[in-house]
Description:
With 238 residues, the protein is an alpha+beta fold. Helix content is 30%, strand content 22%. It has helices at 38-45, 80-87, 99-108, 120-131, 171-186, 198-202, 210-221; strands at residues 29-32, 50-51, 61-63, 68-70, 92-95, 135-142, 145-155, 158-166, 190-194, 206-208. Strands 5-6-7-8-9-4-10 form a 7-stranded mixed sheet, with helices on both faces. The chain has a 3-stranded antiparallel sheet with strand order 1-3-2. Helix 3 packs antiparallel against helix 4 (120-131). The protein starts with 28 loop residues before the first strand and ends in a 17-residue tail after the last helix.
Amino acid sequence: MIRYDETMATSIPPSLIFPPVEESDKDGLLALGGVLRPEWLLDAYSHGIFPWPMGDETPMAWWSPDPRGILPLDRFHVSRRLRRTIRQGRFEVTCDRAFRDVMVGCGSAAGRIANTWVTPAMVEAYARLHRLGYAHSVETWRDGRLVGGTYGVSIAGLFAAESKFFRERDASKVALAYLVKHLERRGYSLLDIQMVTPHTARLGAMEISRAEYLRRLAAALGRAVSFGDRLSVGASDF
């Protein structure tokens, strides 16, 4: 598996699998085909590339958009209402307790059925990354029932957030708030969200150029940090 150290903080070695990201088209599409094995996924994320299926009958698509969406950890906005919800303890918040269920929830949430890229193949691939320690989830629970969560890929100081879902109001926002504060506490430097939406913009997300993203990615990959096996924050930290 891929390992990084501080000497790699200023540059990223060329990929042995993918073409240079500068060859992406105007929409960010870089390549078609390949497999969702761990070595492919880890190589992709460590070079600013991610998979995003375009349909069950088409080859896997790999993307590197320009500009790129990130959520700076020190810019994440927690509204007063969300802070109040967290402090009230309405939800129990955990990490890595139900990774596969979170992915399934992201693919089956209201409005996404038959219109989601979280396919069974993606679930299997990322569940394998999870077992290898490279993918993590944050879950929110109410009375023992999973009601929201988020998940993503972790490599050194990079966390690539993939998706989130909720079955109760604020459940996914609480999960994301815990994730952001946890990453900051653990020493992560880059939270990749791929693309900015109006919703994530209100939370503090921003767009940067691909070149700037790769610079930040190189620095993140040089950080000797890890996700850990439990959340490092609680409701009193908000």
